[in-house]
Design a protein that fits this description.
Number of helices: 4
Order of helices and strands: HEEEEHEHHEEEEEEEE
Oligomer: single chain
Shape: globular
Number of strands: 13
Distance between the termini: 38 Å
Helix content: 10-25%
Largest sheet: 7 strands, antiparallel
Structural class: alpha+beta
Radius of gyration: 18 Å
Strand content: 25-35%
């Protein structure tokens, strides 16, 4: 079957995209409000797409009632954020942080998540996250007035010690158990992995 986007309402377009483009990595973004309240919210329209400079991008839409999300308000004010990644022990807290919290109640404090100071930005990271990237806003893009694409430049990386081989500069995959986003309230584990031999190099004719 085929669909033209203009023949679908926005909600059904979302289902077509989110139902097939998966699993998606999850950016658990921490920001800081004007009174020092730390916000943490997950975004799965997210990925990294460059290493020189290190760039990531995630999308922040409006709330269903039209309010601007705290993540965007804080980033617009400070120009900083931290992308934290989620593994299995943190998955439920990450999911719960997607709820509707008022600006004066920080998700980490409410959910009992430990914070740790960042090295190069004022926004703290989630202390138990397996990986975090401190970011400065690189560029933003408005999408029809209802969504902002936020591109961040990574200026510092945190990696949980046990996950990284400093000699080979590779992750210990047997110790790293990231969670992926499916759709709605569905997530997936990523431990069922497939390894292929190197792809062939076909000479030109």
């Amino acid at each position: 079957m085929e669909y033209a986007p203009e023949d679908l309402n926005p909600r059904d377009r979302y289902k077509v995209l989110a139902g097939f483009v998966l699993p998606r990595p999850i950016a658990w973004v921490t920001t800081i409000g004007p009174t020092g309240v730390v916000n943490a919210a997950p975004y799965s329209f997210f990925n990294v797409f460059c290493e020189d400079p290190p760039l990531c991008m995630f999308a922040v839409n409006l709330r269903p009632d039209g309010r601007v999300k705290d993540t965007l308000v804080n980033i617009q004010r400070t120009g900083e954020f931290v992308v934290n990644l989620t593994d299995e022990p943190l998955a439920r807290a990450m999911h719960d942080s997607s709820g509707d919290f008022p600006p004066d109640i920080g998700e980490p404090n409410y959910l009992g998540l430990k914070l740790a100071p960042s090295s190069k930005v004022a926004v703290p990271r989630l202390a138990d996250a397996p990986w975090a990237m401190e970011c400065k806003v690189w560029k933003t893009m408005d999408v029809k007035g209802v969504r902002q694409l936020i591109m961040g430049e990574g200026i510092n990386f945190y990696i949980r010690d046990e996950l990284w081989d400093t000699q080979t500069m590779r992750v210990h995959m047997e110790r790293y158990h990231p969670i992926g986003r499916m759709f709605a309230d569905r997530y997936c584990r990523t431990d069922d992995r497939v390894v292929f031999p190197p792809a062939p190099e076909v000479p030109a004719t």
